[in-house]
């Protein structure tokens, strides 16, 4: 179809004068190399005329005057937001905030959100932030932010509302699954400096590595943690905790998986353009060796966390335990624009080494264990020697650190079961020798 200006209305002519340079500036390089006439040939004439008519009617009749720049930006925002929940047009502040969050420092309440069926949903609260301390949970639906209903907001608008000056307060209304009434949370914003990696020794020989999100520094931090635990005592088992990890940088996920794998595919991507088709494989060096491994996931484990869990599961490197993950298996590229703003565009899908798509599927655990708390029913606890008055002490009282860890294992059923599984794997392994 040839686009002839003699067939186009006057408003459409004015709009095309704006639209064609915009298409050429934002198009991929092969498209830019084409002539303006070639681009115009591919544009749908009727839709362009309708767009131009809508543009002109807003300019003439909207209750308040709106400048061309605002209308065009809104058009671009709408064009991207209708593609999928993760593509977005980013103004300068949004672009800067996104870059800051991948570096591990940003302002806000420490929460990762997404949309599902038109609802603003908590993917996960980040560890040691106002959101996690207040008790927000994965899959909580945020229905209002400071009194503003979220069903009228785009994802980026909701994120902008939740960010603000440290020390200022934010009020959100949350609807939790299985509950009829909303919960109200009042949070105080902080400068979020999230350390993505933590580690500790649960019991002699059994390590715990927690990764709360994947930042550019995460692989090196995880490597140092593994080496530090191994220096204290050779590891007989390790728990990799990816629960409520919303994802992050793709290269960081590859780097972490590589710490546990010495060969084979980690992840690959497929998209329409050749530069979006990538594959990543493990290098021979691995600080974790063949230490028995349990990977904890839940519904808050998304994106990069699912890449790591899927790779370790497909390569039979560890046992994945917990509940089904979130299912965010799409790749977003952050593209800087010439005006200091940016574009976040979904360009490909992730696939595990065995060719499983993560998108809207998630990772199924090898061993399903729901989160809970170990409790002893009243009257069921049996009396032991240590409960009798005047009993002889066979050894010193339990150290405080061990008592605190024992309490933590009682409160975190999934963690307790992961530790039990590691011990069982070691027992079986010793009997086979």
UniProtKB/TrEMBL annotation:
Keywords: Hydrolase, Protease, Serine protease, Signal. Residues 95-163 form the PDZ domain. InterPro entries: ClpP/crotonase-like_dom_sf (IPR029045), CtpA/B_N (IPR055210), PDZ (IPR001478), PDZ_sf (IPR036034), Peptidase_S41A (IPR004447), Tail-specific_protease (IPR005151). Residues 1-33 form the signal peptide. SMART domains: PDZ, TSPc. Belongs to the peptidase S41A family. This is Peptidase S41. It comes from Vreelandella alkaliphila.
């Amino acid at each position: 179809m040839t686009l002839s200006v003699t067939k186009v209305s006057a408003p459409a002519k004015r709009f095309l004068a704006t639209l064609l340079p915009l298409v050429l500036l934002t198009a991929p390089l092969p498209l830019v190399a084409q002539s303006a006439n070639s681009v115009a040939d591919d544009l749908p004439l009727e839709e362009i005329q309708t767009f131009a008519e809508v543009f002109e009617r807003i300019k003439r009749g909207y209750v308040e005057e709106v400048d061309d720049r605002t209308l065009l930006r809104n058009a671009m925002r709408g064009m991207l937001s209708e593609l999928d929940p993760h593509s977005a047009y980013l103004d300068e502040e949004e672009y800067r905030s996104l870059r800051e969050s991948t570096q591990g420092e940003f302002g806000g309440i420490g929460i990762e959100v997404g949309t599902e069926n038109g609802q603003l949903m908590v993917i996960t609260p980040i560890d040691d932030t106002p959101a996690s301390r207040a008790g927000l949970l994965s899959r909580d639906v945020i229905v209002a932010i400071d009194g503003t209903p979220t069903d009228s907001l785009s994802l980026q608008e909701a994120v902008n509302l939740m960010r603000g000056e440290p020390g200022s307060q934010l009020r959100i209304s949350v609807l939790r699954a299985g509950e009829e009434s909303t919960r109200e949370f009042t949070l105080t914003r902080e400068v979020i400096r999230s350390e993505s990696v933590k580690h500790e020794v649960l019991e002699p020989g059994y390590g715990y590595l927690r990764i709360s999100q994947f930042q550019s520094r995460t692989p090196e931090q995880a490597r140092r943690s593994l080496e530090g635990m191994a220096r204290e005592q050779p590891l007989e088992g390790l728990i990799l905790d990816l629960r409520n990890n919303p994802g992050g940088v793709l290269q960081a996920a590859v780097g972490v998986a590589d710490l546990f794998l010495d060969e084979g595919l980690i992840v690959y991507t497929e998209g329409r353009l050749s530069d979006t088709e990538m594959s990543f494989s493990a290098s021979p060096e691995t600080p974790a060796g063949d230490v028995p491994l349990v990977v904890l996931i839940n519904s808050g484990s998304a994106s990069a966390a699912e890449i790591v869990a899927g790779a370790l599961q497909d390569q039979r490197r560890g046992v994945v335990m917990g509940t089904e993950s979130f299912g965010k298996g799409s790749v977003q590229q952050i593209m800087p624009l010439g005006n200091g703003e940016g574009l976040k565009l979904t360009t490909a899908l992730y696939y595990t080494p065995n060719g499983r798509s993560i998108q809207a599927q998630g990772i199924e655990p090898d061993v399903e264990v729901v989160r809970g708390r170990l409790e002893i029913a009243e009257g069921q606890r049996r009396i032991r020697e240590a409960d009798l008055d005047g009993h002889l002490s066979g050894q010193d009282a339990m150290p405080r650190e061990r008592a605190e860890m024992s309490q933590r294992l009682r409160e975190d059923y999934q963690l307790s079961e992961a530790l039990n599984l590691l011990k069982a794997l070691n027992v079986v392994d010793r009997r086979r020798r």
